[in-house]
Design goal:
3-stranded antiparallel sheet, 4 helices, globular
């Protein structure tokens, strides 16, 4: 299982990659594996400011529908348009082209509350 060192993680299996004042958010390799084949994403929060752990959208797989949660507070400034036509990119590249949203960070101190790669790996092994 792939757990990149340069990302932060949530207990709900989202990841965040910070680039300056903005960040990309997606679901982890573990999460996409547990969900199975992803068939649809509903993210209608573009332009909204959301608090940490608020739902920013839903992800639908063949077997289930799951909520996706904000890892930190911020404004959703972009939704990955590629996923509208090809949601299965999340299964193939969860840390690359399969990112879900781009966020303008509003409380960078919340990043310190997230899990690093080692802590996330320990969570999965618990």
């Amino acid at each position: 299982m792939n757990i990149p060192e340069n990302l932060k993680y949530t207990k709900d299996h989202e990841w965040i990659r910070v680039e300056g004042e903005e960040a990309y958010v997606g679901i982890t390799d573990y999460a996409q594996g547990e969900l199975g084949d992803i068939v649809f994403l509903e993210i209608e929060t573009e332009g909204e400011e959301l608090a940490k752990e608020e739902v920013f959208g839903t992800i639908e797989a063949v077997k289930t529908v799951s909520d996706m949660y904000m890892p930190v507070s911020g404004e959703v400034v972009e939704v990955n348009e590629k996923l509208e036509e090809t949601p299965e990119i999340v299964n193939k590249e969860p840390y690359g082209e399969g990112w879900l949203i781009k966020v303008k960070l509003t409380k960078t101190t919340e990043l310190d509350e997230l899990l690093d790669a080692t802590a996330y790996k320990n969570l999965l092994e618990a």
